[in-house]
Specification:
four-stranded antiparallel sheet; mainly beta; 109 residues; Jelly Rolls; 8 strands; two-stranded antiparallel ribbon; 38% strand
Length: 109
């Protein structure tokens, strides 16, 4: 097995799923895992937990976004078009495209 010298650049980054939610978005629990803050380029990952009926209003990103529903149901609006997503459904929203997400479940997801 090759040994890594102390001069080699470590490129991997491990993020904890137990990170603190972004306070400005509470009561949504949005946790950013990987982003430009850890030197990622063109990529941000995270998790979001929505209270029943909660909405993340229209917004855009400087990179594409894949939204996967882990549990529950969501309404995703993309430039006025509405999509109903259920558990394990996924939608990709391209860079710069306005979108919003609402918890359509009877419980938090």
């Amino acid at each position: 097995m090759a040994r890594q010298s102390s001069k080699e650049l470590v490129r991997e980054y491990i993020a904890s799923g137990q990170s603190t939610p972004i306070p400005q978005l509470l009561p949504l629990e949005l946790r950013v895992m990987v982003s430009a803050a850890c030197h990622a380029r063109g990529l941000t990952t995270g998790t979001a937990r929505f209270p029943t009926g909660a909405t993340l209003p229209y917004h855009v990103h400087d990179c594409g976004e894949a939204i996967t529903i882990v549990e529950g149901q969501a309404e995703v609006a993309v430039e006025g078009r509405r999509y109903s997503l259920r558990q394990l459904d996924c939608i990709h929203v391209p860079e710069g495209v306005a979108h919003a997400i609402t918890n359509a479940s009877q419980r938090p997801f």
